[in-house]
Amino acid sequence: MSIYARIAGTGGYLPERILSNQDLERMVETSDQWITERTGIKKRHIAAEGEATCDLAEAASRRALEMAGRRADEIDLIVVATTTPDRIFPSTACLLQARLGAAAGCPAFDIQAVCTGFVYALGVADKFIRAGSARCALVVGAETFSRILDWSDRSTCVLFGDGAGAVILEASETPGILSTHLHADGRYESLLNVPYGVSEGHEHLEAGEAKVKMRGNEVFKIAVNTLGRIVDETLAENGMSKSDVDWLVPHQANIRIINATARKLSMPMERVVVTVDQHGNTSAASVPLALDVAVRDGRIRRGETVLMEAFGGGFTWGSAILKF
Ligand code: COA
């Protein structure tokens, strides 16, 4: 009998403070109209001073545990996808383990794949469960992306927001995650990056200059093509056709990218979960946040087929197809 990883609960958390397009009009040379037409974003949430990624991750994780009817001490694997960890170390996953009181001793680690981070984390946790190495995994995407934005750069600061999403994965004899597909191509590093870090450009990091840089238009074109390809790959590997997919839960970077992927799948927009208007791009948190919204409002039901996809810095990209 095969073992599958099945989503037993989802959770999300958004910081209280909302930054609207009108607020941004007062900060940089932009307009609500430009942001809405080019991206679909109307507002995003921003973490309060002193509120860190682990705080967001903890709130989302507690909600996922509650929905799953699980206690924290039953968790035997923690994977946190983040580009904005609280600290260089310990990992945010280790900080989260201590906060939750999750079984001391279970493996806990972070994954860095920027906006594809949650899909990567889900892929890794799925393999742990299929291999029999874990039975109850907490998988989180959490970001305080606002901390790595240059708030004077209108081409990036209007796009992103903060938040966290989490799922509890349980070992199950019924599916479950059917497959995950993870990819990267490091040759595109120059199109989307934070050009400084700990080991390179340390002085810029200390000067507060380690901020997101992006050639948006080029990223856009590659994202659309790549996401189209991964949708084909995912369906082909499972011998499925487009009509077998009940819900598309895409990475929420830009409504125009989401529309293009939906068209590729011949999916009506009523079957696509869209939160980009409300959340902006929350990087690794965007897919689990969108999933949580659609599960809690009753759209996604048990037994339905869900396709998730994401694209991000690296470049990285990936997908997961599952029976909810
Ligand atoms: N407000 C007003 N004007 C802006 C602006 C803003 N916030 N940001 C950029 N502009 C201007 C540019 O300066 C440019 O002006 P110019 O023509 O005078 O030079 C013009 O708008 C068009 O810029 P361009 O970058 O070509 O626009 P675009 O249609 O590609 O939209 C993005 C820009 C960023 C919205 C779009 O490229 C995008 O979403 N890219 C992908 C981003 C992404 O998904 N990144 C994360 C991957 S996970």
UniProtKB/TrEMBL annotation:
What is the protein's major site of localization? cytoplasm
Which keywords does this Swiss-Prot/TrEMBL entry list?
Answer: Acyltransferase, Cytoplasm, Fatty acid biosynthesis, Fatty acid metabolism, Lipid biosynthesis, Lipid metabolism, Multifunctional enzyme, Transferase
Entry GO MF terms: 3-oxoacyl-[acyl-carrier-protein] synthase activity; beta-ketoacyl-acyl-carrier-protein synthase III activity
| Subcellular location field | Cytoplasm
| Single GO cellular component term | cytoplasm
Q: Name one GO biological process term.
A: fatty acid biosynthetic process
Q: In which pathway does it act?
A: Lipid metabolism; fatty acid biosynthesis
Q: Where is the Beta-ketoacyl-[acyl-carrier-protein] synthase III C-terminal domain?
A: 235-323
Identify which residues the record assigns to the active site. 115, 251, 281
Please name one Pfam family that this protein belongs to.
ACP_syn_III_C
**Catalytic function, reaction form:** malonyl-[ACP] + acetyl-CoA + H(+) = 3-oxobutanoyl-[ACP] + CO2 + CoA
- Which InterPro entries does this chain map to? ACP_syn_III_C, ACP_syn_III_N, FabH, Thiolase-like
Sequence ranges assigned to domain Beta-ketoacyl-[acyl-carrier-protein] synthase III N-terminal in this UniProt record:
109-186
Chain positions covered by the region annotation ACP-binding = 252-256
Q: What is its EC number?
A: 2.3.1.180
HAMAP family from the UniProt entry: FabH
| Function noted in UniProt | Catalyzes the condensation reaction of fatty acid synthesis by the addition to an acyl acceptor of two carbons from malonyl-ACP. Catalyzes the first condensation reaction which initiates fatty acid synthesis and may therefore play a role in governing the total rate of fatty acid production. Possesses both acetoacetyl-ACP synthase and acetyl transacylase activities. Its substrate specificity determines the biosynthesis of branched-chain and/or straight-chain of fatty acids.
Q: What is known of its domains?
A: The last Arg residue of the ACP-binding site is essential for the weak association between ACP/AcpP and FabH.
State whether it acts alone or in a complex, and with which partners, per the record.
Homodimer.
Name assigned to this protein: Beta-ketoacyl-[acyl-carrier-protein] synthase III
- Identify the species of origin: Acidihalobacter prosperus
